[in-house]
Amino acid sequence: MVGVLRRFGRIGRQLAWNIEYRQGAEFVGARSPVLLELLAVLLPGRRVVELACGDGSLAAALGGFGHATYQGFDISSVAIALAIRRQLPGMTFAVADMESWTPAAPFDLLLVEEAIYYLAPDAQVALLERAFAAMGPDGLAVIVLHSATKHAAIIERLGQRFRLVTDRRERDRAYLVLGPRP
Ligand SMILES: C[S@@+](CC[C@H](N)C(=O)[O-])C[C@H]1O[C@@H](n2cnc3c(N)ncnc32)[C@H](O)[C@@H]1O
Question: Does some domain include residue 146?
């Protein structure tokens, strides 16, 4: 049922994710020590945007990381309500579809954990192009993929189009840090 809904455009995708969160879906990626280690180095002083932030479980782990600002977005209004309920100091959350999302405030680090593959290949590249155009030459994007094997084509595509700053692996999970090409 949820899989079928996802085929019906943005509204279908939103409904499908709302059903998952209402059924108590939780995603373990946000608790990865490798990701937290990477973010401890990258976040201090940065203005962070997290797309597909879900219920804010990663945001909740970032409190002491020294980021300047944090905005989280997700297509699911149920997930965003759960994130807001956490009352994380200085962090804001709003509903947005990353396919059409455009930055409304300055930022310099984009986070997308376990979600970029919900976009079509062209839309993945277009999203990062929009983000880097807004962030400027020092902007960074952290992309997490639960399976480097399954998503090898994404890693290759993004590595060709953008500058690969870091490629960390934890078992088959991939943590890519990308920057714009000069
Ligand atoms: C596998 S969950 C990962 C959640 C969170 N990033 C994590 O790792 O814990 C995928 C998330 O992507 C969100 N999502 C899927 N398609 C999206 C889209 N087009 N725009 C924004 N969020 C989307 C879902 O609502 C869900 O919260």
Answer: yes
Which tens digits make up the pLDDT trace of 87-132? 999 999 999 999 999 999 999 999 999 999 999 999 999 999 999 9
Question: Distance, CA 71 to ligand 1 centroid (Å)?
Answer: 14
Q: Where are the beta strands (DSSP E) in the chain?
A: 47-51, 69-74, 91-95, 109-113, 140-145, 163-170, 173-179
Distance CA 26, CA 155 (A): 25
Which CATH number characterizes residue 132's domain? 3.40.50.150
Ligand 1 contact, 30 CB (< 6 A): yes
- Classify residue 14: in a domain, yes or no: no
- Predicted local confidence at residue 138, as pLDDT: 96
pLDDT at 151: 97
Examine residue 22 and state whether it is found in any structural domain, yes or no: no
Total tally of structural domains belonging to the chain? 1
In a domain, 84, yes or no: yes
Question: Ligand 1, closest atom to CA 14?
Answer: 25
- Whether ligand 1 lies within 6 angstroms of the CB of 93 is answered as no
The string of pLDDT tens digits covering residues 129-162 is 999 999 999 999 999 999 999 999 999 999 999 9
